[in-house]
């Protein structure tokens, strides 16, 4: 299903906060030239329960593990790319360990990707895009 096809649904969206996820979702929705109706601001368990109750749809990361009563499906056209940023001070105590930290975080993320059945199936069907995503880590 495409993102445009979901625009007529009620949406549960994350509360505005410092990580700018909500702004990112708004910019993605702008790509389909439609602003979804967002009657629910929720996070975590509350958001899952709103979706499970059939009150709304929501976006999630590809690594989200399906919860009972909640279906996770990839969007057609691959309109979403989450960017994860790892940062530390150049003159801080972690600076000398930067390469090792990056390797461990990237390995952990790829392990998480492999543990998500929905994302694992997507990666099998789209190996070229999976390689692009891995190259970004």
Fold blueprint:
Elements: H1 3-6, E1 10-13, H2 21-31, E2 37-41, H3 44-52, H4 98-115, H5 117-125, H6 127-136
Helix pairs in contact: 5-6
How would you explain this protein's 3D organization?
The chain is mostly helical. Helix content is 45%, strand content 7%. The chain has a two-stranded parallel ribbon with strand order 1-2. Helix 5 packs across helix 6. The protein is globular and about 50 Å long. The two termini are 27 Å apart. The mean pLDDT is 85.
Radius of gyration: 17 Å
Which spans have pLDDT < 50 for at least 5 consecutive residues?
none
Helix content: 40-55%
Using the alpha-carbon principal axes, give the shape. Answer: globular
Largest sheet: 2 strands, parallel
Give helix and strand order, one letter per element, not per position: HEHEHHHH
Percent in strands: 5-15%
Instruction: Give the helix/strand class.
Output: mainly alpha
Number of alpha- plus pi-helical segments: 6
Instruction: Output the strand order for the largest sheet.
Output: 1-2
Please report the distance between the alpha carbons of the first and last residues: 27 Å
- Strands, total number: 2
Q: Could you write a compact summary of the structure shown?
A:
With 137 residues, the protein is mainly alpha-helical. The protein has six helices and two strands, in the order H-E-H-E-H-H-H-H. Helix 5 crosses helix 6 (127-136).
Which key phrases capture this entry?
mainly alpha; 2 strands; 137 residues; globular; two-stranded parallel ribbon; 45% helix
